[in-house]
Task: inverse folding
């Protein structure tokens, strides 16, 4: 009777086969465990727990766009307004030692709710820095002979006004608040904003703000003239209406002899391409004589040279 295979196999051989069998089973079990654990580790990525590559690309693109946007509005070291600002600041420094002056003051301003009324006026002017004092004698045909007096800290902080002709002149001297509706019918700003220093300060403030942005073109006119006065004219222009730009074009005139800023012109945005920009305001100081020694009497309503 034949023996079964187990009996025909030597014991040492059986032990070797059994060992290989056990080792194979252990290896198979290990592979299964490793595969299962590997699949679990990849699952969060498939479900979006980890950031996908395309999401990182989007964030990188957004960051680049933000960088480009900030570069557009960041002030450049060679901004075209830097040189005009240096020039106007020098003009402002020239006024540090000016205590008073007489001048002819001319202005054109768009007034009214819609700014559709252009008012032009010319007046002889006396000005003193401390206390802030202004006297105007109007010289244009419509308001010929009108006198206006303002002294900070006097007359209850109000204007004294006397018309030179017509029925209004019969009323005599009237007092008006510096920002009253009657006054602002003919003015864009109250009398407290007048003067060479404040005109220069406004331009400096405007150009400092605009120099934080691009879209600015600057031109220089070295042979400009105001009457017979030789001037340097500087013109800044913005091509498109922006919130940060109050005016389309600004033009300033600097007297080459005195180095004073003597005229400012401001223009709005044209309604259509090809149109000339509308003039919003223009202020000119001519025949300027500085530090002439004006006294309190020059700003006193009792001065017999006046008609208050």
Result:
């Amino acid at each position: 009777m034949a023996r079964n295979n187990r009996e025909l196999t030597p014991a040492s051989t059986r032990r070797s086969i059994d060992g290989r069998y056990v080792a194979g089973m252990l290896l198979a079990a290990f592979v299964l465990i490793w595969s299962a654990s590997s699949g679990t580790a990849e699952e969060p990525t498939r479900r979006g727990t980890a950031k996908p590559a395309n999401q990182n690309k989007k964030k990188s693109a957004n960051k680049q766009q933000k960088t480009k946007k900030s570069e557009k509005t960041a002030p450049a070291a060679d901004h075209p307004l830097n040189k005009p600002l240096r020039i106007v600041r020098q003009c402002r420094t020239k006024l540090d030692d000016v205590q008073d002056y007489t001048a002819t003051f001319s202005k054109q301003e768009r007034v009214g709710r819609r700014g559709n009324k252009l008012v032009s006026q010319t007046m002889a002017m006396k000005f003193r820095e401390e206390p802030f004092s202004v006297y105007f004698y109007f010289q244009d045909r419509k308001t010929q002979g009108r006198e206006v007096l303002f002294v900070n800290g006097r007359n209850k902080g109000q204007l004294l006004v006397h018309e030179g002709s017509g029925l209004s002149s019969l009323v005599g001297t009237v007092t008006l608040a510096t920002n009253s509706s009657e006054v602002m019918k003919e003015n864009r700003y109250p009398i407290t904003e007048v003067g060479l220093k404040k005109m220069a300060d406004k331009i400096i403030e405007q150009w400092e703000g605009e120099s934080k942005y691009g879209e600015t073109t600057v031109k220089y006119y070295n042979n400009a003239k105001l009457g017979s006065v030789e001037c340097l004219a500087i013109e800044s222009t913005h091509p498109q209406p922006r919130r940060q730009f109050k005016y389309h074009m600004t033009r300033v005139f600097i007297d080459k002899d005195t180095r004073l800023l003597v005229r400012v012109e401001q223009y709005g945005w044209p309604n259509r391409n090809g149109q000339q920009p509308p003039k919003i305001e223009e202020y000119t100081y001519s025949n300027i004589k500085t530090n002439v020694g004006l006294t309190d009497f020059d700003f006193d309503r009792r001065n017999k040279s006046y008609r208050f």
